[in-house]
Amino acid sequence: MHIGNKIKTEITNRRILITDFAKLINKSRSYIYSIFEKENIDTELLIQIANVLEIPVSSFFDEEILSVYQNKTSNVVVGRDNNGRISMADCQEKLNEALFEIRRLEEIIEGKEKLLEEKERLINVLMNK
What we know:
Blueprint: H1 3-13, H2 18-24, H3 29-37, H4 43-53, E1 67-71, E2 74-78, H5 88-127
Antiparallel strand pairs: 1-2
Helix pairs in contact: 1-3, 2-3
């Protein structure tokens, strides 16, 4: 599987200009051409590309190819859906849900940190009276 070729094919099929696509993912035109040459790319970048193209990340992978990951005592076979096994689509869905939850929790933490700073400031004001 050559992921760069698959990305190039998707962009070409959608008749998106390379310069326009580069702007959509905040990369340079030359960087886009370098992506086309790569067999592997960063997962975060792949998710960004898939979002811009409005396709699931799993569409960049061959469904027939099974990837086995050792998970302590049991194997998870990506591409099948069976006892102890999970499909690529399910993996992608769980990943997207986890990323959404992470963003939500980061926002909550940020809000709590601001609240804590405000309370510390109030305590300092009251202590100085």
